[in-house]
Amino acid sequence: MEGLLAEHERLSQSGTFSKTIDDIQKTIDLLVKARESIAATLDPNETSLNLVKLQNPVKSSLEDVHKDLEEVRKHQTKYSKLLDKKFKDKALPQMDYDALSSQPALINRAIAMHLLREGQFSVASTFLTEATQNNVLDSVGEDMTMSGTEHDLGLDSLKSESLQKQFANMYHILHEMKNERNLVPAIEWAREKSDDLEKRGSNLEFELGKVQFLWLFVGQQLEKGRSNLYGGRQHALQYARQELSHFRPRHLREIQQLCGAIAFTPYLRQSPYRRMFLNSDAWDELATSFTKEFCALLGLSADSPLYIAATAGAIALPHFSKLQEIMKEKRTEWTTKHEIPVEIPLPPSYRFHNIFVCPVSKEQTTDKNPPMMMPCGHVVAQETLVNLSRNTRFKCPYCPNESHPRDAMKIYM
Question: How far apart are CA 242 and CA 206, in angstroms?
Fold first, then answer.
């Protein structure tokens, strides 16, 4: 592995095309200059002379470009051989059942949405135009449930203009937040969406005001021209009085802590508030929270579904590959389409649906075999309930209470 990393380092250092680009630019400059000279004269002899003079410099420049590319190609070839040697090529698991093969529209919609979310608006527009021309996105059945945003995305490329504006605004706010330490656009957006954020139970508006207070408190100064306010403790206290007072019903304790820290100045590092005021991750956490709430108000998840699906697939693929090898050795088959025969260790953030495993049958419940709660509060699968009761009163397998199957209630996950 050390050799592979060393070669990767050499490739990253020598694999840049800056010298090649410079050589190409020189060639372009020569051609442009020659074209201007030819256009400026009407003498055929002088035109021929200019072309003759151009041959050797252009030839030399193209040779330099070829040498630059040859050096890069040599390192790429060596690196590719090391990769092939380190990571043996294995055939991907082959499955007869492909859930997405009949849904190209869903795949293309996910790709288009991912491009929009990443700010690749021109690429997304081109992709949507071509997909719409091929009638791929419009082939989704009307019986499928989708949000208004996704529905707009499936009609034509013009429908995505509103999305582009929304995401362009999001990236502008994030740029100001991360690079310029300017929270004014984010605070203005949160103030405009205050009612919607309140309905979601979001604290984003207060968190933005809180970080703004912390930033002003530690003495940061706003750039001239953006605002006539300057950082410092007095300014932070004034900001708290003006902007944070209406948050007192819900965040009184946190506001008291923010203002109480003034008594510990300039010894914040030794104060009880050091974690609050000296949190190096505060801006990244705020940017993540803002992105989550922004996308939520658009009816979207915080992360790209395409990215999540690809990452989860990359995690699961080695397990499926190993499973296929084992089944091949034992000559067994995977007969269940909608269930995975092995546990896939996905991160907690990638688990979006609650599941219930019947404590009696040890089987995971499904839509056809939903969880049922008995009057005593214990829950079993519907098939287990039928087997235990046989349509008569029966005793709960976990407590002395008896009940009738008609008294059980279906639980919706």
Answer: 13
- Tokens at 168, concatenated: 């362009």
pTM of the model: 0.57
CA gyration radius for the chain?
32
The pLDDT tens digits for 229-242 are 344 778 888 888 89
SS3 309: helix
Alpha carbon distance 365, 342 (integer Å): 16
Can you tell me whether residue 395 is helix, strand or coil? strand
What's the CA gap between 223 and 87, in Å, rounded? 51
What is the DSSP secondary-structure string of 47-112? HHHHHHHHHHHHHHHHHHHHHHHHHHHHHHHHHHHHHHHHS---PPPP-S--TTTT-HHHHHHHHH
pLDDT digit string (tens) for 50-69? Answer: 788 888 888 888 888 888 78
| CB-CB contact of 168 with 264 (8 Å) | no
What pairs with residue 371 in β-bridges? 381
- Tokens at 41, concatenated: 């004269």
Among 280, 283, 285, 287, residue whose Cα is nearest residue 174 = 287
